[in-house]
Amino acid sequence: MITLGCSVIAWYSYGQSKITVNTDKPIAEIQPTMWGIFFEDINLGADGGLYAELIKNRSFEFYSPMMGWKEIKKDGATGSVLIENRTTTNKNNPRYARFTFDASKGSYGISNEGFRGMGIKKDLQYHFSLWARAVEGNGKMRVELVNSEDESIGSATLTVGKDWTKQKVSFTATSTDLKASFKIWFEGKGIVEADMISLFPNDTWKGRPEGLRQDLVQLLADMKPGFLRFPGGCIVEGRELVTRYQWKKTVGKIEDRELIVNRWNSEFKHRSTPDYYQTFGLGFFEYFQLSEDIGASPLPILNCGMACQFNTGEVVPLEELDPYLQDALDLIEFANGDVNTTWGKLRSDLGHPAPFNLKFLGIGNEQWGPQYIERYKVFAKAIKAKYPEIKLVTSVGPSPDGELFDYLNPTLRELKADILDEHYYKNPEWFQQNASRYDNYDRKGPKIFAGEYAAQSAGIASPENKNSWKCALSEAAFMTGLERNADVVYMASYAPLFAHAEGWQWTPDLIWFNNLEAYGTANYYVQKLFASNKGTNVLSILEDKEKLTGQKGIYATAAWDNATKEIIVKLVNVTDKEARHNVELAGGKKINSTGTLTILKSQDLDAVNSFGSLNIKPTEEKVSVKGKTVAIALAPYSMTVLKVKTK
Question: pTM, whole model, 2 decimals?
Fold first, then answer.
């Protein structure tokens, strides 16, 4: 037998072996949250990615206030820019720019480079806005998009008044460009002060002003995810507590949200990203709204008084934990509270009177040690006393084994934790070898959230990792084991989700994008096939009375779907040989004479998808059902989904 990454172990004949699915006796319920999405603002996932803002450093709050901006002087014009700080009157957004200019001859202005350029589309309308006032002069300015050749591809004019107001103007681009930039030209002679300089495309998700990038959200919606975990990840913790994620600072008016440095800004020396900050234009209200849009249950993760233990490892003393605990209680009220409550009213004022139906809350991200247990106990006691219906997700550390896991796993089980969050960043072979990991887990103990997993082709955090078919296929093998054990495993999500082609820090990633395009990796299509073919109940699937967990290079799981009255069988072949099987749909159900096969395959284990070239994507074909038997030839290195309706 040949398996991925292994030498020849044994040869055997596949023949026409029989696989039996018992359709009459469901084993366990599959949770609606079984397959979901984990979002973290890494790899320019939010600013420069999902959040559709095109201007970088729009409020001059980066450590270097003019980062992303350049002054332009032409044909004798003069001018200067001064960054002023009004911390005493506006502590969340203290900086603004003061432009003093004489453009009575020539031209004076500033340009913004965007996030590795700006992706501009021909015939699409763009909406410009800024907060500004004219201290001296007429306050006239011209805004302009220019392509990578510095040619104008869209412009508009506006005039700002003597008082601070938000000004808006829209215009249409005349051509498409991947690397456009944006310019503001000041006219005449004067002084203008400006802040929150912003540019958004018109084609945001659901047409929401200043919203999310449509193509990226559509890729998420197409997955039919059961949940959305947000906002991370390590940014929940921060490198130190002062840069932790604080949800209350991410709701309300955009101009009042306090920007902070992104913890991935300098994490990797080989991928240093000094211009990586969080504006929180994509904040907690938008996360909840996005969850609702794509039919996913929201799963927010909150800081539990601990900074990243891989960095500073700072902790808040237990006697000073109350503000962190109050944030958790207030978040539940924000999500579910009546409009007459303090935080429920804020949700309503933001445009969503109805509750978001929050059911889950994560306490800490990837914490470990006795200090985590101490803080978890405080959170659990207070939250359960006021909101006993909320299920709490708890960390069992950064790895699925080892000293940290071996302490947390039994300790949290003794504390009767609701859901344990296990993470796996391992090589492809590990994923194949651990498809039966949950077969012997305690059915009466805490449920499992496979919160972060991805096969690493080169090594964890290596920049050489690829989204290869070998990795995706191994994940598919592992996922059959998650679904087979749906009475224990309630949730699972690949990580990380997004990566900008020129702004990434971590590989591999589920979805890659540039400023104009996006594509799903082979791993994405594996996730999509599992999530969109989930079913509602696990069915027994055996070969010679044994579960298919890779003994002959074949992995399998089966499900029944109450809504569609379908039998769903997922089969993964990790060998280089075709595997022929007769799948018997045993039981009293009357079976249709035809079904469908959806197949994801490649003969090349190193194959990857890329912009404009989806080498690995599903194909669909009809299959005959003779009596209650389906003859299937599983292609080498393939994942196959069989669906058969009942009468």
Answer: 0.96
